Amino acid sequence: MQPTSIHDNVREHYAERARNAASCCGSNTLYDDRLLQDLPSDISSFSLGCGNPITTAALKPGETVLDLGSGGGLDCFLAAKAVGETGRVIGVDMTPDMLAKARGNAQRLGYPNVEFREGYLEALPVDDATVDVIISNCVINLSPDKPQVFREIARVLKPNGRVAVSDIVTNGELPEAVQQSMAAWGACVAGALTVQAYARGLLEAGLVDVRVQPKDTTDKWLAALPIGVPFSATITARKPRADEQPTGEMPAGVEFETVGALTIDGLDDLIGRVVDMDSIEGGYDLRLAGDVAEMRAKVAELQRAAGCCSPLKFVLVEAADGAHLRVTNLSASAFVSIDSLN
User: Fold this and answer.
1) DSSP 75-107
2) Is residue 48 classed as helix, strand or coil in its secondary structure?
3) Cross-strand partners of 168
4) b/e map of 129-147 (b: 16 or more CB within 10 Å)?
5) Which domains are present in the chain?
6) What residue ranges in the chain does DSSP mark as E strands?
7) Which of 65-79, 245-259, 316-330 has the lowest mean pLDDT?
8) Using CB atoms within 10 A of its CB, is residue 339 exposed (0-12), middle (13-18) or buried (19+)?
9) Which of 112, 207, 305, 326 minimizes the number of CB atoms within 10 Å of its CB?
10) Distance CA 336, CA 189 (A)
């Protein structure tokens, strides 16, 4: 396939990360320590993801696993431990620097059942119906043609094969200025789909049992903010068995969780205190009513949890008319007004 300018921009962004060994965070907080304990620290700490698809996938010995956007190989190595010597793991990445890093790591670790292939998510170098489980960690959002990625997922999965993905999504459309920002594409923001669009794309590709839900409590907080900010989600789905007939439509009661229906202990109170909202440069200003000390503690916890890898910044500011929660996106230079998002 012919790469687009978005492919080129993303490739260079992650090639620089590979060359500089630059992870999102100084240490890896996405995985349980027990998953990482047998890996060298330079491999276990190099993560550009936003979640833990390995635990979600519940891999079994002997399975064939495909990692979309395998980067330095961390998720592939964790998958290889889970599927054992009788299993197989394939990592696909379009960035030569990342592939070189991953292949070098695989040689160091001595994993004969892990291989890395150069290719695009929109044209996977994998045969039809040969994969038991597809994993991916904060990569599908980078593709400029996500419907084609979803079709490729359906193509390479075996019947009843499953999907376990961590990715960035939004609750509401991103402003056009952010969608057009190349820097925001590389930062996993501009290409993020809404929850509903992500679920619909998987369903229209022929998958079933689709679920899209915030990764953890912090992301539930982000999802419930009434401003369409990006947040990390866990996405699961399944390819139908041979005797199943998917409709490709979004049926009533489909198994996916829309963030608008979430109820989170403590967060309902915070969101319920929003009495006014306005746009500011790079984000939004929410005026809150209530106890300032209590709100400050909640906002501080939100910023601590989201601050490592998220481009979002949360600050509580006291003013004459009350407390204001200011949410800004550091990866975007301009946002459109609130009115245009409604």
Assistant:
1) HHHHHHHHH-TT-EEEEEES-HHHHHHHHHHHH
2) coil
3) 232
4) eebbbbbbbbbbbbbebbe
5) 5-259 (3.40.50.150), 267-341 (no CATH)
6) 64-68, 88-93, 114-118, 131-137, 157-170, 193-194, 208-214, 230-238, 274-280, 283-288, 312-319, 322-329
7) 245-259
8) exposed
9) 112
10) 15
Strand locations in 239-309 (E): 274-280, 283-288
C-alpha distances (whole Å) from 58 to each of 54, 144, 257 are: 7, 29, 20
How open is the CA angle 91-105-111, to the nearest 5 degrees? 70
Return the bridge partners of 230, or none.
170
**Which amino acid would we find at residue 79?**
A
Residue 191 has pLDDT above 50, yes or no: yes
The alpha carbon torsion through 206, 210, 215, 218 (nearest 10 deg) reads 120
- What is the pLDDT, as a whole number, of residue 322? 87
What whole-number distance in Å separates Cα of residue 31 and Cα of residue 23?
14
What are the pLDDT digits (tens) for 125-160?
999 999 999 999 999 988 999 999 999 999 999 999
The residue among 40 and 266 whose pLDDT is bigger is 40
Residues 6 or more apart in contact with residue 120 via CB below 8 angstroms = 1, 3, 7, 94
Res. 57: pLDDT tops 90 = yes
CA angle 119, 204, 181 (to 5 degrees): 55
Instruction: Return d(Cα 178, Cα 124) in angstroms, integer.
Output: 28
Tokens of 147: 């419907």
Is the per-residue pLDDT at 2 higher than 70? yes
> Contact, 192 vs 175, CB < 8 A?
no
pTM above 0.85, yes or no: no
Residue with tokens 């991953």: 102
- The predicted structure's pLDDT at residue 204: 93
